[in-house]
Amino acid sequence: MSRLSRFGPWAAAVMLVGGVAAICCYAYMGWFGPDVVARHGGSVWVAVKPNDPRLSASMRVALRDPVPLAQPGPFQWASRADGLETTELPVIAEGNEVDRLLLVRIDPAKYRFETRNAPAGDRDLAAWMNQLHAVVVTNGSYFGPNGTPATPFLSDRTQLGPWNYHATHGAFLASDQFTGVQDLQQQDWRVLFRQARFGMVSYPLLLGPSPSRIQADHRWLANRTFIGNDSSGRIILGTTKEAFFSLDRLAAFLNTAPLDLTLALNLDGGSVACQAVVIANFAREFCGDWETKFEQGKIQLLQRVIGRRRPAIPVVVAVVPK
Fold first, then answer.
1. Do 55 and 185 fall within a single domain?
2. Are 19 and 141 part of one and the same domain?
């Protein structure tokens, strides 16, 4: 019997299993799942201990009990163009840098904000920047298995995502009259959407006038992205380089950081916590690497097994010159 004929049944079995997996993936996620895996690779959850070397050094610090207090380090805003500034804010614990916030501060009088969705899973940061002629792109709120928004979403006055949705945290809105985060504690997102051109609901509200509404496990660590307003009406976009923060500790840090934030809304995190800035002679591009969760009594680490580092981002916030 030839080697080919001996391995024929095994090859057929592998192809059959692969075909069934692809069909199931398509049935659950449409083209988004297979396309993302083909273009950008895939990841799996693996169980780890708090001191596992597969975790980053910052994550191992964050999983100690008690967690060291984080304080802001020195930083300075740099003007990159009229109405747009950038900086990096160090996060210091026990005298060492454990994270860093990549920040952009934007005057909405000079720049337009757009919320966009590409459910096909075929756009990374560079593709979004090129298509929208944007100077800043960051990931937006959450999305479902098929790449469509998992929360109410408004894109050029077209509503996407769920219609029957109860929201009590926050929404980011962009209209001719107002651009920024709104607290949904006593407001209906449907009313706000009728007055806006772009917008999205997200959670939790990290910083606001009322007591914290954050309910998340302190072992859920990830690269984080947020959007907020300062007291002058400017919009601040932030993405963490590391995964030191749980949601409650990020909220506490933003409350004490000298950023003059009045409201701050958490966006999606983990590997899609991405930010790109290209303007004048300045360029920055970053996407996250880290995320953990606590499940069945174990800490689980999300590890990339195949593919590129640059992920597909189906939901984004883009900043475009007016």
1. yes
2. no
pLDDT digits (tens, 9 = 90+) for 193-230: 999 999 999 999 999 987 778 988 999 999 999 999 99
Measured distance CA(255)–CA(292) in Å, rounded: 24
Long-range contacts, stretch 188-192, CB < 8 angstroms, 24+ apart: 189/152, 189/165, 190/152
148 in helix, strand or coil? coil
Give the structural domain span for 242.
Answer: 41-321
Does residue 292 sit within a domain? Answer: yes
Do 153 and 296 reside in the same domain of the chain? Answer: yes
Name residue 320's beta-bridge partners.
112
Per-residue pLDDT tens digits for 92-118: 999 999 999 999 999 999 999 999 999
Half-sphere exposure of 289 (CA within 13 A, CB side): 12
Q: Which of 257, 268, 263, 180 is nearest to 224 (CA)?
A: 268
Q: Quote the number of domains for the chain.
A: 2
Q: How far is CA 16 from CA 23, 26, 109, in A?
A: 11, 15, 57
In a shared domain, residues 57 and 123 = yes
For residues 170 and 149, membership in a common domain is answered with yes
pLDDT of residue 7: 43
